[in-house]
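::Encoded backbone::
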Amino acid sequence: MEKKIVSKVITSVIVILICLSDISIVFAAEQNNQIKSETYAISPYFLYITRCENNLILNSGGRLTCEGKTEVQYGYIAGLTIELQQYDGQWETIKTWNSSDSTVVSLYKDWYVVSGYQYRLKLTHTAKSSNSTVIDSFVNYSKTITYD
């Protein structure tokens, strides 16, 4: 009988210890800083664009595959402009493609380029309202590829 009581006591202690191990105690203390207090507004980066993708691939013979994709929230129109840029002291756009579609738009285009230059994509992702007003926009760049 005594073994049962000891066993129950040990089990109860173990259960109590397990329960207490999940409890965190936090104390707050006032901090006196001599630094001037500033207030910042926090706002989301994108409200309507949910996904942006890009890819630039150099294939044989100087053929570049230019890829981009824009996804927006349901009920909005996705827009995408891809600019293929060549570097010759400064970045210059040598070819532009654009498209828009409901919720998701993807562009996959090939373009032949000449050797001796660097190339990249400039992509402008947009979300438009039903009356085609741009309500969210984001520009990003692909990796830079050198074609020797």
The mean pLDDT is 85.
